[in-house]
Design goal:
The complex is a heterodimer of chains A (148) and B (293). By secondary structure, chain A is of the alpha/beta class. Chain A is 39% helix and 18% strand. Chain A contains five helices and five strands, in the order βαβαβαβαβα. The termini of chain A are far apart. Chain B has helices at residues 3-9, 13-24, 53-66, 123-133, 171-175, 196-208, 228-236, 245-262, 267-275, 281-290; strands spanning 42-46, 71-77, 86-88, 106-112, 138-142, 159-164, 185-188, 217-219. The chains are: A alpha/beta (148), B alpha/beta (293).
């Protein structure tokens, strides 16, 4: 049988809204994954160190503070700087659709807003780990499109 | 042999993390490294949920790192028996890994119990051996003890420290058999709350009945730091209680047997066959057991 996937769910920056992150962590647990939750107000550096020490395959970042445009690309860049380009990054929270293209270009592979089903997230993860171009090291390129 | 071992020795944490994943996935085994000296290398910190094990460990890690030690922590949390998934949340309380200087001397890894029963899978012992071999001074295994029967940590650690707290039942609870009998030391946390002193007294009383070699009971407050420095230095020189020798080997044998069964390639398919009535329990067990001989 396949081993469970190790996934870090992180809350970067000054943002205390963790209901969404906890619901996602729980949904991924129920889908059979091992979820490491970082707690609130982590810096990009702390998040990357957690992914490294925990040997996570995926990193989910949640932001409801409006700082996603700064934090998400910074996290992707830091992962690449640390030779962790094979980590798959996805995001969630309150992220207006107009802000999506630059985040996808930075290497985020999926963005999930309010109303996303846990089935969709689980499907994204199953799809992403099968691809060889989903790591953040591949920069812009493939990203999740549920209608595909 | 494996160049990740050399890389991990040189401080490459990603290589170390990947080594541990390989061990966890059953692809790699480690045996006990030769060590000089009689001090312990692997300590299990256990106790019921909510008594403050993670907070206390965080405080003690700050102390130990100040002493110049490099310490690795394997924080074990249960896997869901239904989905196989797990929520690993011990990092949330670990401020020491956010300290720019101290974080270099601490490695924290969350471990799920996966398919094993009991509080600690035996594979954690191999992970601890790996950490010692690549240069970490000591390994702390933090486990969720769901009750007095969680004696499995005796199979993986050189020393067992039981963390308790106030409001955990009356004096009769302290008399119940189990982990308390195997502990090399007992720490009662939350000394800032009512009842902690009384609980510590009850535990002392219980431990001293009938045992000459009773472990010490220490009172601390992980929240305010009272007693933590004393407890931290006490643990560094903790001796192994003589009472637990046979029980340790017993737990190790049981863990080893379970690991052999779980590592059988047909384990999941046999499980399914029993569930669907295609095979009797006895036949399935015989196949699992014989397959490993």
């Amino acid at each position: 049988m396949d081993q469970p996937l190790r996934i870090v769910i992180a809350k970067p920056g000054l943002d205390g809204h963790d209901r969404g992150a906890k619901v996602v962590a729980r949904a991924l647990r129920d889908a059979g994954h091992e979820v490491i939750y970082t707690g609130l107000r982590r810096t990009p550096e702390q998040i990357i160190e957690t992914v490294r020490d925990e040997d996570a395959v995926l990193l989910g970042i949640s932001s409801l503070s409006g700082a996603h445009g700064h934090l998400f690309p910074r996290i992707c860049e830091t992962l690449r700087e640390h030779n962790m380009g094979d980590v798959i990054v996805f995001g969630g929270g309150i992220i207006p659709e107009d802000d999506w293209p630059p985040l996808f270009a930075a290497g985020v592979r999926a963005l999930f807003g309010p109303g996303t089903t846990s089935e969709e997230m689980v499907e994204f993860i199953a799809t992403a780990v099968q691809r060889d171009d989903a790591g953040v090291g591949h920069g812009a390129g493939w990203h999740w499109n549920p209608s595909e | 042999m494996d160049n990740r071992i050399e890389a991990a020795k040189e401080g490459d944490r990603r290589a170390l993390a990947r080594l541990l994943t390989s061990i966890e996935n059953g692809e790699l085994r480690f045996s006990e490294p030769h060590s000089g000296g009689s001090d312990w290398k692997i300590l299990a910190l256990t106790g019921p949920p909510g008594v403050g094990k993670s907070c206390l460990l965080d405080r003690m890690l700050h102390e130990w790192v100040d002493h110049g030690l490099r310490i690795a922590v394997l924080a074990v949390d249960p896997s869901s028996p239904r989905s196989g998934g797990a929520l690993l949340g011990d990092r949330v309380r670990m401020s020491v890994v956010d300290d720019d200087i101290k974080k270099k001397s601490v490695y924290l890894r969350s471990v799920a119990t996966r398919k094993t029963s009991g509080s600690v899978p035996l594979v954690v012992r191999d992970m601890a051996f790996c950490l010692l071999q690549v240069g970490w001074d000591k390994v702390i295994i933090e486990t969720v003890g769901a009750g007095p029967s969680e004696v499995r940590c005796a199979a993986v650690a050189d020393r067992i420290v039981l963390v308790e707290g106030p409001a955990r039942g009356d004096g009769v609870q302290a008399e119940k058999a189990g982990l308390l009998e195997l502990a090399d030391a007992v720490i009662v946390n939350k000394s800032d709350l009512d009842g902690a002193q009384r609980h510590a007294n009850e535990l002392r009383e219980s431990l001293h009945l009938g045992h000459e070699d009773a472990p010490d009971v220490h009172l601390v407050s992980a929240l305010y730091g009272d007693g933590v420095a004393e407890a931290s230095s006490m643990l560094l020189t903790l001796e192994q209680s003589m009472r637990a020798g046979r029980a340790r080997w017993r737990e190790r044998l049981l863990s080893h047997h379970e690991r052999l069964l779980l590592e059988h390639p047909e384990f999941d398919s046999l499980l399914m066959k029993i569930e669907e009535g295609l095979m009797s329990f006895e036949d399935a067990y015989a196949q699992l057991r014989d397959g490993n001989e």
